[in-house]
Amino acid sequence: MAIKSVSIRIEEEMLEKLGYVADYEGRSVNSHVLVLIRDNVKAFEAENGEIMGTIEPDSNVKPSRK
Asked: Is the separation of the CB atoms in 32 and 42 below 8 Å?
């Protein structure tokens, strides 16, 4: 599986808050964003049906250390 990089624009205050939440959850900001994406994809699929693909959302992110 190829890993791709994505760049986003985010206000500094929002990035600081995201970092705070990620740290609280015991994750890096990158890992936390992957958790948010995974959870969003799972919720979408639960409501709209499975998105066809070869990767399961869970395999792309470390579980919470909480």
From this structure: no
Residues 6+ apart with CB under 8 A from 45: 51
pLDDT one-digit tens code per residue, 11-50: 999 999 999 999 999 999 999 999 999 999 999 999 999 8
- Angular region, 56: left φ>0, alpha ψ -120 to 50, beta rest: beta
CA–CA gap between residue 15 and residue 6 (Å, rounded): 15
Q: Is the whole model's pTM more than 0.70, yes or no?
A: yes
Kindly state the tokens that stand for 47.
Answer: 């409501």
Distance, CA of 13 to CA of 56 (rounded, Å): 32
* CA dist list (Å): 56 to 16, 21, 22, 29: 30, 25, 22, 21
